[in-house]
Amino acid sequence: MELVLHPNPILRAHAVPVERVGRTERRLLKRMLKYMRRWKGIGLAAPQVAHFEQLIVAEVNGQMLQWANPTVLEGNGTERMEEGCLSIPGSFVDVVRSGRVRVRALDVEGRTVERELDGLLARVVQHEIDHLNGVLIIDHGPVVQRRALSQGDA
Ligand code: ZN
After folding, report:
1. How far is the CA of 109 from the centre of ligand 1 (A)?
2. How far apart are the first and last CA of the chain?
3. Ion ligand 1 — residues with CB under 5 Å?
4. What is the enclosing helix (H) or strand (E) of 28?
5. Residue 146 and which of 6, 51, 91, 113 are 20 to 30 A apart at CA?
6. What does the alpha-carbon distance between residue 103 and residue 117 come to, in Å, rounded to a whole number?
7. What DSSP string describes 111-151?
8. pLDDT at res. 75
9. What pLDDT shows up at residue 153?
C-alpha cells in the first residue's frame, strides 16, 4: 500500500459510495488501518491509497473507526485548529470545522451506524470526508510549511 502525495490528481477525485461492505471492503479497511498506524496518522481515506470507494479509518485516543459512506447529518459550533495531512507532508493549515457532528456511516459489518462525535475525532472524520470529495486542507486557508512531524496528520 502506497501513500498518494499532493499534487497527484488522484487526491482530487470523488470517491464512490460502496454498495455493501463485503470481504473486499473489510480487507481494504483493515489494511488502511494498519498503514495509517505505520505512517503515524490519525486518519486515512481510501483516495490517499489510490482507492476510489468511500472508505475511511480514524483512530484518536484509543477510539477507532472503520467506516464506509460516511455522511455528516448535522454539524454544530465552529472550531479552528491547525491540521496536517499525510498526503501533504510538512504543510499545516488552520482549518475551521464544526466542533460537534452527527455522522451516519456503514460499519465493517455493513450495519448503518449514527454517531455523535466531538473533539479531535469529529475533526478527523470531517477531514477524511473532505478527502472523499477531493478536498484537501490547502483548500481551507493559507499554508504554513514546517518540517517537524505533527501529531495531527490525517
Ligand atoms: Zn489528509
Report:
1. 25
2. 16
3. 85, 154
4. helix 23-38
5. 51
6. 8
7. -EEEEEEEHHHHHHHHHHHHHHTT--GGGSS-EEE--S--T
8. 98
9. 86
Measured in Å, residue 24 CA sits from the centre of ligand 1 at 23
In angstroms, the Cα distances linking 83 to 78, 102, 144 are 15, 21, 10
Q: What is the reported pLDDT for 20?
A: 96
Provide the whole-model pTM.
0.96
Tell me whether residue 83 is one of the annotated catalytic residues.
no
Cα separation of 146 and 35, whole Å? 23
Pairing relation of β-strands 55-60 and 43-45? Answer: antiparallel
111-149 tens-digit pLDDT: 999 999 999 999 999 999 999 999 999 999 999 998 766
pLDDT recorded at residue 150: 61
Q: Which three cell numbers stand for residue 12?
A: 482530487
3-class SS at 18? coil
Given 25, 53, 59, 128, the catalytic residue: 128
30-35 contacts: CB < 8 A, separation 24 or more?
30/66, 31/1, 32/1, 32/57, 32/66, 33/57, 33/59, 33/64, 33/66, 35/1, 35/3
Residues 31 and 1 sit within 8 Å (Cβ to Cβ): yes
What is the whole-number distance in angstroms between the Cα of residue 48 and the centre of ligand 1? 8
Ligand 1 geometric centre to CA of 154 (Å): 4
